Amino acid sequence: MTDNAFGNRPAIVIAYHSGFGHTATLASAVADGAHTEGADVTTVAVDTMTDADWVTLDSADAIIFGTATYMGNVSAGFQAFAEQTGRRCITGAWRDKVAAGFANSGAKSGDKLTALISLTVFAAQHHMHWVSLGLGPGWNSAAGSEHDLNRLGFWLGAGAQTDVDAGPEDVHPADIATCRHLGQRVAAVSAQLIAGRAASSAA
Ligand SMILES: Cc1cc2nc3c(=O)[nH]c(=O)nc-3n(C[C@H](O)[C@H](O)[C@H](O)COP(=O)(O)O)c2cc1C
Hints:
With 203 residues, the chain is of the alpha/beta class. It has a single domain, classed as 3-Layer(aba) Sandwich (Rossmann fold). The chain has helices spanning 22-36, 51-58, 76-84, 86-91, 112-125, 173-202, and strands at 11-17, 40-45, 62-70, 73-74, 98-105, 129-130, 158-161. Strands 1, 2, 3, 4, 5, 6 and 7 form a 7-stranded mixed β-sheet that branches. α1 (22-36) crosses α6 (173-202). The chain binds flavin mononucleotide (FMN). The site of flavin mononucleotide has 19 residues, from α1, β3 and β5.
């Protein structure tokens, strides 16, 4: 693995909750994308946090949050993690880190925009810098198909849909590619930010 064009290696954590493994598959895709863009990547399941995981989160340049959509919002497992960060919110421990997010649901829409918005508000409460998906909508014309990147047409983050009777290995390839793109984008933005901060502090 070589450094990125800026010669730095952003530390990126994928912090996700997955009850049945679908969102875990997407977290791996996000991690893969960030890794290919030159980041040091750690994937953390937020329902099994260790002391070492908290240290990794606190020292990250960027955190990409991922959740399954349960009852039209982030899962209880993700929200329990969010509430555990309350002290950090007050102290500003994650201030000015980069943030982004992805959400998975059983229905095509499934009201997962609400989950993405919740992730965005969570990041804002931590004074983080939210990075959008950075893709136009796919599958929105006669020439489009379900195999398009961003097939479900989200801007705020990566949206994915997995049939409720599918296994973790059956997550849609287009959603995997879209999540990989998100990881790449966050790694690129983080690298730019690190380089810019270094340049401005040297000036
Ligand atoms: C308690 C519960 C609530 C759910 N609520 C929704 C929902 O509001 N919208 C939806 O589309 N799917 C809903 N689902 C389906 C899950 O989002 C879907 O199965 C998803 O792939 C699960 O991801 P996971 O394997 O990472 O937990 C729900 C599933 C459960 C268990």
